[in-house]
């Protein structure tokens, strides 16, 4: 029996609903397999926890998390706490504490899902988001607070080491995919220091990957290319901020923010990696039981792949695709199915898959 210890942090809003759904699906996979089991440990770290305790992560919390094989995360963000507090004190504290510098965001139109974009069926992208530096390095400040002279700075810091490791990761990803194509996205015309470093290091690293075809695009231009020529992109590497934005666009072009998964990876595996749907707490639909759990399910596929459970990952992805192809959708995709109905349908599919599947 292969056992995986999973730290579960549902967080806030629909994060709680979709992660509960994801756990049920993982449990169904374990039962189906008979050789695989999950030991889930729930952590109540959320905005409610913060309002009660004054912090998102208790003393020694990261050390406790470090013992797990992976972290399954929902969302953090509440109307009672400023977003910059919740983001930095929980999600970014984990990403940075565990050096999860590679954020991987696949985008692909699932069968049976409608996109507003013509030609969206050609989308098959992996966006690699640098996850530790740049605009999110945490440097900057405010002086002359409250005065007309007040200044706020957001200092974006890139190190050669940080840039090189994300480019290497992106080249490895591009090489592992059929098209072996990597697009560098920066804004080096306007951001003439850090972004120029990105460009330079990219073409240095490219020399080690002659089999990977490369090109480059400015971040504003790449948004038009994503819409007008989606089939010309495959693997994309971009900074923390730029990739955050273009990956939400990618999710919308492939149907809904509710579908898209992501992995925050510590590629060296010194620390656990963290897996989450890309969406947030969705205040407008939280508590209604109608959130789309597919993003959390696809996230579970990425977590299974990371844990070396290729068969279970394939089984789950096949079940997700059969579900979307059948036309049973949640409201964000124009359907009426609830989170629970979609979860039950996936669990049922897994139970009924033939053992050869
Ligand atoms: P959001 O992703 O929560 O919601 C944006 C829109 O997409 C909403 O209309 C929502 O209903 C819809 N949506 C998102 N996920 C859905 C799903 N699974 N099913 C159906 N519809 C879905 O983004 P937001 O409104 O910008 O942020 C709300 C809160 O979430 C904020 O506090 C924000 O900071 C936080 N947030 C957290 C994360 C994270 O934890 N990684 C990511 C994004 C936003
Ligand atoms: K999330
Ligand atoms: Mn985002």
TrEMBL record:
The keyword Oxidoreductase applies. InterPro entries: ICDH/IPMDH, IsoCit/isopropylmalate_DH_CS, IsoPropMal-DH-like_dom, TTC_DH. Keywords: Manganese, Metal-binding, NAD, Oxidoreductase. SMART domains: Iso_dh. This is D-malate dehydrogenase (decarboxylating). The keyword Disulfide bond does not apply. Residues 5-346 form the Isopropylmalate dehydrogenase-like domain. Its EC number is 1.1.1.83. It comes from the Bacteria. It catalyses: (R)-malate + NAD(+) = pyruvate + CO2 + NADH. Belongs to the isocitrate and isopropylmalate dehydrogenases family. Gene3D superfamilies: Isopropylmalate Dehydrogenase. NCBIfam families: TTC (TIGR02089). Its cofactor is Mg(2+); Mn(2+). One of its GO terms (molecular function) is magnesium ion binding. Pfam families: Iso_dh.
């Amino acid at each position: 029996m292969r056992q995986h210890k999973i730290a579960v942090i549902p967080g806030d809003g629909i994060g709680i609903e979709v992660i509960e759904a994801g756990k049920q699906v993982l449990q169904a996979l374990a039962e189906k397999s008979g050789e695989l089991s999950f030991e889930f440990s729930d952590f109540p770290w959320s905005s409610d926890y913060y309002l009660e305790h004054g912090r998102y992560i208790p003393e020694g919390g990261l050390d406790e998390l470090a013992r797990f094989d992976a972290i399954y995360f929902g969302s953090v963000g509440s109307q009672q706490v400023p977003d910059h507090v919740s983001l930095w004190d929980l999600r970014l504290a984990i990403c940075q504490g565990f050096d999860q510098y590679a954020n991987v965001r696949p985008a692909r139109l699932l069968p049976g899902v409608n996109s507003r974009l013509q030609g969206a069926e050609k989308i098959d992208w992996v966006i690699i988001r640098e996850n530790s530096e740049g605009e999110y390095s945490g440097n900057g400040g405010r002086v002359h607070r409250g005065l007309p002279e007040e200044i706020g700075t957001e200092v974006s810091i890139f190190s050669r080491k940080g840039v090189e490791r994300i480019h290497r990761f992106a080249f490895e990803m591009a090489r592992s995919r059929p098209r072996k194509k990597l697009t560098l996205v920066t804004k080096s015309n306007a951001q003439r220091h850090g972004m120029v470093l990105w460009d330079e290091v990219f073409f240095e690293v490219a020399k080690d990957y002659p089999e990977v075809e490369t090109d480059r695009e400015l971040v504003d231009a790449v948004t038009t290319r994503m819409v007008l020529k989606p089939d010309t992109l495959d693997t994309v590497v971009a900074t923390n901020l730029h990739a955050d934005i273009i990956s939400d666009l990618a999710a919308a072009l492939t149907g809904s923010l509710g579908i898209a998964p992501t992995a925050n990876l510590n590629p060296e595996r010194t620390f656990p990696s963290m897996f989450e749907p890309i969406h947030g707490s969705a205040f407008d639909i939280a508590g209604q039981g109608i959130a789309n759990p597919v993003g959390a399910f696809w996230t579970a596929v990425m977590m299974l792949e990371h844990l070396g459970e290729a068969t279970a990952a394939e089984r789950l992805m096949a079940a997700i695709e059969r579900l979307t192809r059948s036309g049973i959708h949640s409201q964000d995709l124009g359907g009426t199915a609830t989170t629970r109905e979609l979860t039950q349908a996936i669990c049922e599919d897994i139970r009924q898959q033939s053992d050869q599947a």
